[in-house]
Amino acid sequence: MNQIIPVGQPMARLEDQRFLQGTGTYIDDMVLDNQAHAFLLRSPFAHATILSIDADEARAQEGVLLVMTGEEWVAAGYKPIPCRSGVKTNRDGTAYQEALHHCLAVDKVRHAGEAVALVVAETYAQARAAADLIFVDYDDLPVVTTPQAALAPGAPRLWDHLPDNVCLDFSLGTPDETEAAFADAAHVISLDLVNNRVTAVPMEPRGCLAAYDASSGRYTLWNSSQNIHANRGIFAEMLGLDADRVDHIAPDVGGGFGAKNSLYAEPPLMLHAAKAIGRPVKWVAERTEAIASDTHGRDQTSTVRLALDADHRFLALHVATLGNIGAWCGTVGPFTPTGGSARTQGGPYLFPAMHYEARAVFTNTVQTDPYRGAGRPEASYQIERIIDYAASHLGVDRFALRRKNLIPSQALPHVTPMGLSIDSGAFAVIFDQTLALADHDGFAQRAAAAREADPTKRRGFACVPYLECTGGGPKEEANVTFAADGTLTLAVGSHSTGMSHETVLTQLLSAHLHIDPARVAFRQADTRATALGGGHGGSRGMEVGGNAVQQVAGDIVEKARAISAHLLNSTAADMAFDAGRFRDSKTGQEITFDDVAAAARDPARLPESLQPAAGASALDTTAVFEREAITIPNGVHAAEVEVDIEMGTVEVIHFWAVDDFGRILNPMTADGQVMGGVAQGIGQALYENVVYDEETGQLMSASFMDYCVPRADHMPPMTIIYYEDAPTSRNPLGVKGAGEAGCCGAPPAIVNAVCDALREFGVTHIDMPLTPEKIWRAIEAGKAGPAA
To answer: In terms of Cα–Cα distance, which of 674, 680, 681, 754 is closest to 719?
Structure first.
């Protein structure tokens, strides 16, 4: 039975068949013949000089196949892990200060958990036991774990060539106009706030498996990664190899959220080890090891200033940020607190002037890199908190203040003072729609009823617009090959780590060609399958990958049109395609797409211009889509919370989202994207926080006993709808990115709602995460009064 689901309608996830039955293939499921296992010895110190390393006893242990130190890595001629930040220029035009990050520590360690030595053995247990026998003579050094400490006079230097520990000093916007607006403003509101450090903790920890074929000189790397094509080239460059000698493949990947986009030490180490011992080598992180070595995200402290006129129109926004980027530059680490946080400053509000400035600072912590949103959630939090804070101090309605300053539809297209080009949207319409959806008019009655039922409970409500932008690589490849049995293989360079690409991209191809999706085999994240690929990041999946599939499907139809005309002695211009059939508009003759596909394998039945290679089909097609401009997803999120004023605990009662993602290809999978982002946004707002001891640099939240992630019972009921009346014209599908919306809207919605609940106690701001202790202390301070 044909199960063709039109684009725009829900289609059940194809991936779930294997995932729910436990038949997916993750790195730790893979076992190759004669496979060895790796363990990394990691530093217990956050900052120390390595005086010596004695690995003789470890090398002598039964089953040990290889031990390698940082000095040996450098002696082999291998290069450090490079930084690929899109922003590398200081405000004065000079170049940023990069720090060399080798796969194993050389001379010094600069954060607790930095890899110091590699051990490969017959079994994981043998490798781990041997690592315990490596003696590293450390001379520990003073540490700094915050930008403020790193910038203080006389602070310890992480790098000898950086006396101030600053990697990048950044500025964007209209500084002169901004300061002039503040000078003339009737009201100036200022707020210091924190975007707390978090980590992705995907369900599947990072891992990789490398193999080397001595007969061909080729490597194969299976990697739990989000960015197969780009990272292959960099790994090969580090090892002095031609990239085409390395096949880089991601099997099923159990979540990424940005943390698996980065360049890490382990994959090139495994590639080296596989060749060195002549056997496949696998490494999979333990959970505590992952939290201590995966990239972290956010970690910005900012002073936000808002200038308003006497009528409460926004005149200017100024944000000064310190970004903690850890011990070295991540893959694009310096970009997130600088350009990544700058471009969507001001959200969907009309600002005549804006100025964003930031310093990216080195500290003795794990490096930061993009985490779901990569600067856009930070910017959204900054603007939405300062607006609520301003409304409280000015004594005005916070929703009326927002509505007054939203960019009107007639002002679009609009270029912000940060240079962001906004092409479409209906910000005021969606804002009012969300307030109505959440029944804001009935909130006071609900709050009163909750308090009457339990005098310790206080309800709060918030409604916040957000505006972000997509990112990631601008090009994507899709190719389709036809088999003799009537099945197709769709291969793409984009990459799903749980976002349903297998379903939606198959649905796109199926609907366009009018074939049952069960006939489509899906292939992704494999350098053998596509020549290029942008992987996953920046909500680019449908914007770039979806349009590549749309393009390849259109190209296939045009080829099939020509073949159908040849078979029916007609012309391509007269052949109309509908519901899986080509029809001659003049004669009425018809032929099915399947009949055309069968003929496409027979050179005798084809025109000379469409002769296939031996054993192939004339319909086999590759297309590369390149976007001209990024899209601007936006929407409004609302939250209702209940705070226990005796315990300081928060329950999220309900969450509403009205999102403008342009055209929705599959509403069910889009819902999943929104829900996942909201879950991580709630996690940042209420629970998650990476904590380092300021004196020793030890990670204090290295397990789920100390790093609190939200559970299923923390998640509220969610009402999610989509606004599709403002599609973008920047790509053929009219889609805007969806993956990072929840992380942009949820943190300010939750924090604003909690502050609303505690308004009677004079609470106007609490920094994330809003733990019970913080909330309880804020309430007690409010009860004590201003003089306390």
So the answer is: 674
Q: Rounded distance, CA 44 to CA 112, Å?
A: 5
What lies within 8 Å, CB to CB, of 13 at 6+ separation is: 500, 502, 503, 668, 669
Give the phi and the psi of residue 433 in degrees, each rounded to 5.
Answer: -65, -40
Is there a contact between 584 and 575 (Cβ–Cβ < 8 Å)?
A: yes
Q: Distance (Å, rounded) from C-alpha 676 to C-alpha 9?
A: 20
C-alpha distances (whole Å) from 69 to each of 55, 59, 249, 364 are 9, 12, 27, 21
Please provide the average confidence, as pLDDT, over all residues in the chain: 97
347-375 residue pLDDT tens: 999 999 999 999 999 999 999 999 999 99
Handedness of CA 767, 203, 123, 32 (dihedral sign): negative
Amino acid at 442: G
Please name which of 344, 461, 455, 456 lies closest in space to residue 407, comparing C-alpha atoms.
344
Q: Can you give the pTM of this predicted structure? A: 0.96
Question: Pairing state of beta strands 575-578 and 520-524?
Answer: unpaired
Pairing relationship of beta strands 488-492 and 520-524 according to DSSP bridges? parallel
How many angstroms separate the CA atoms of 779 and 268, rounded? 51
88-126 pLDDT, tens digit per residue, is 999 999 999 999 899 999 999 999 999 999 999 999 999
pLDDT digits (tens, 9 = 90+) for 552-570: 999 999 999 999 999 999 9
The DSSP annotation for 360-422 comes to: EEE-SSPPB---TTTTHHHHHHHHHHHHHHHHHHHT--HHHHHHHHBPPGGG-SEE-TT--EE
pLDDT of residue 436: 98
H/E run at residue 205 = none
DSSP E strands: which ranges in 418-568? 421-422, 457-467, 475-482, 488-492, 520-524
CA torsion through residues 251, 257, 258, 260, sign? negative
- What Rg value do the Cα atoms of the chain yield, rounded? 28
The DSSP code for 464 is E
Q: Which residues of 754-786 are buried (b: 16+ CB within 10 A; e: fewer)?
A: bbbbbeebebbbbebbbbeeebbebbeebeeee
Which residue's structure tokens are 């899709």? 478
With vertex at residue 559, the alpha carbon angle to CA 555 and CA 560, rounded to the nearest 5 degrees, is 115
| Local confidence band at 785 (pLDDT 50, 70, 90 cut-offs) | confident
d(CA 703, CA 257): 19
Residue 241, both tokens: 């190899």
Distance of CA 114 to the CA centre of its chain: 23
Contact between residue 745 and residue 466 where contact means Cβ atoms under 8 Å apart: yes
How many helices (DSSP H) and strands (DSSP E) are in the chain?
A: 20, 28
Cis peptide before 769 (omega within 30 of 0): yes
Q: What angle, rounded to 10 degrees, do the helices at 547-567 and 501-513 form?
A: 30
Q: How many CA atoms lie within 13 A of 174 on its CB side?
A: 18
Q: How many Cβ atoms are within 10 Å of 599's Cβ, its own excluded?
A: 21
Q: How far apart are the first and last CA of the chain?
A: 73
Q: Can you tell me the distance from the alpha carbon of 30 to that of 186, in angstroms, rounded to the nearest whole number?
A: 65
Spell out a b/e string for 273-305, using b for 16 or more CB atoms within 10 Å of the CB, else e: bbbbbebbbbbbbeebbbbbbbbbbbbbbbebb
pLDDT digits (tens, 9 = 90+) for 705-762: 999 999 999 999 999 999 999 999 999 999 999 999 999 999 999 999 999 999 999 9
- CB hemisphere CA count around 747 (13 angstroms): 34
Q: How confident is the model at residue 786 (pLDDT cuts 50, 70, 90)?
A: low
